[in-house]
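Researcher: Please translate sequence to structure tokens.
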Amino acid sequence: MLNVSSRQLRAWEKQGFVPPVPAFGFSDLLALKTLKKLRDFDIAPRQIQLALTSLRKHMKDIDQPLAQLRITAEGRRLAVHVSGSKMEPVSGQLLFDFDANEIEKLRSFPVEKPLSNNANEQKSEFWFQRGLALEESGAPVAEAVAAYRKAIEANPHAAGALVNLGTILFRMRKLNEAESYYTRAVEADAAYPLAHFNLGNLYDEQGKPDEARKHYQVALKLNPKYADAYFNLALLSERNSEVLQAIGYWQTYLKLDSTSTWAQAARKQLDRLKKTVRSK
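Model: Translation complete:
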């Protein structure tokens, strides 16, 4: 997903940036994404370590800075973005100028006065990330829903929050509401493959194969390596008795994913279809 070598991953584990676990959770992936960006700007591991130590010390409620905060490279220096402000974590500039209450106000995105577009986007991103964290932690669904709704309230074009809220509603079998949020996500960002993929899933569930196929194909146009879209297109083609198309989709899927549990199922389906074709 992130084009990180095993060697680099082992190095980050030894440096304590990510845990040495057999499978990464969502927070770990966010941390890896940040680390990769910092590596691309040649930020030294020691500099990152100093920044993380400082952030944990001065922001008591932050235990995973790489996943919970937006950390970027400003030339050869690091910057932490909080509500539109930048903090230099190593020297402590700005961070040391605020007491704990003021820092909490920054992180809470106060709305007592009108917000600029940038501040609204920052607020929306905060609530979006909070929603993700709540889902990852297994918190009550209502809490994640509330977080995503606040993200959308701050930025009605927040495609990620629209999709995630739609997915929660989809799982709750509130299909009409889910469709509304998925459609809004596509309108907000027509180049967002996941929005099209999820809308395809919803139409497939509703028994609308033509609409489902359309959105799966759009998702693949935007991301030709979207394995799950090939998987679902293969199933859709099988249900429509389009055997040769299904075979092609299964073959492409297995080129992208040859080892997972789903790949085993795909391989069985492909073998079965090939036998059906040979028998005719």
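Researcher: Any highlights?
Model: The first helix runs from residue 6 to 14.
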